[in-house]
TrEMBL record:
UniProt keyword terms in alphabetical order: Cell wall biogenesis/degradation, Hydrolase
Full protein name: N-acetylmuramoyl-L-alanine amidase
SMART domains in alphabetical order: Ami_2 (SM00644)
MF (Gene Ontology): N-acetylmuramoyl-L-alanine amidase activity
Record-annotated N-acetylmuramoyl-L-alanine amidase domain positions: 68-197
Cell wall biogenesis/degradation is among the record's keywords: yes
Domain of life, source organism: Bacteria
Coiled-coil annotated spans: none
Length: 214
């Protein structure tokens, strides 16, 4: 057999082996995707109660469907962190943004200065809040009314209410209450955000979350 014939034979073999490997890889990816999509098929989609909330006492205001992705967490994606945000504006402007399909982002919750909580996206679903797909899929996002440069934004009522919310989320999904799993938006890889900023009291917040979990 000539060298050229041997090269062609090896090339054909490599192509067959590579093709088989690619087929297996494609099958694995397809199976993984189907496992996440099966429940959305006609007559199979999970029943949802309109206006239902995941945190008792929260007010429901639906975000635009363009600002999140329907899912089935934690079956689709394990929820393993909470991401703390600041709205950089008032409550009403944040709600308007999250209800605007052109905005492209929304968090699961907003906590107001007076401690009242609004839920805009079910925890089942993937909110576009962190600017990082993996973090979006695995986290619950909580916005806080105010500005990162204004320490007075972060009131006692806000800290207490937000801590109870985070404690409930951590309890629901078995998320450890520590700074590796309860993080700020600024700590998400690839983000250009600075929230919650230098005035957010992390030591106080984690202490309150742990107390609420006890």
């Amino acid at each position: 057999m000539s060298g050229a014939d041997a090269d062609r034979r090896l090339g054909r073999r490599a192509l067959l082996v590579g093709g088989a490997a690619a087929a297996v890889g494609t099958a694995v990816l397809a199976r993984d995707e189907l496992s996440r999509l099966w429940w959305r098929l006609p007559d199979v989609e999970k029943a949802r109660v309109a206006g239902a909330v995941d945190f008792r006492g929260a007010r429901w205001v639906a975000a635009s469907a363009a600002n999140y992705r329907r899912a089935d967490r934690p079956a689709d994606y394990p929820a393993d962190r909470v991401v703390v945000h600041v709205t950089q504006g008032g409550y009403a402007s944040a709600v308007r943004a999250f209800r605007d399909p052109a905005h492209g982002a929304a968090a699961h919750y907003i906590v107001r200065e007076d401690g009242r909580i609004t839920q805009l996206i079910r925890e089942l679903d993937v909110a576009f809040h962190a600017g990082n797909r993996e973090y979006n899929e695995r986290s619950v996002g909580i916005e806080h009314e105010g500005f990162v440069t204004d320490a007075s934004s972060f009131t006692d009522a806000m800290y207490a209410s937000s801590a109870r919310l985070t404690a409930a989320i951590c309890g629901r999904y078995g998320i450890p209450v520590d700074r590796r799993h309860v993080i700020g938006h600024v700590e998400v890889p690839g983000t250009d955000h600075t929230d919650p900023g230098p005035h957010w009291d992390w030591e106080r917040y984690i202490r309150l979350v742990r107390r609420a979990r006890a």
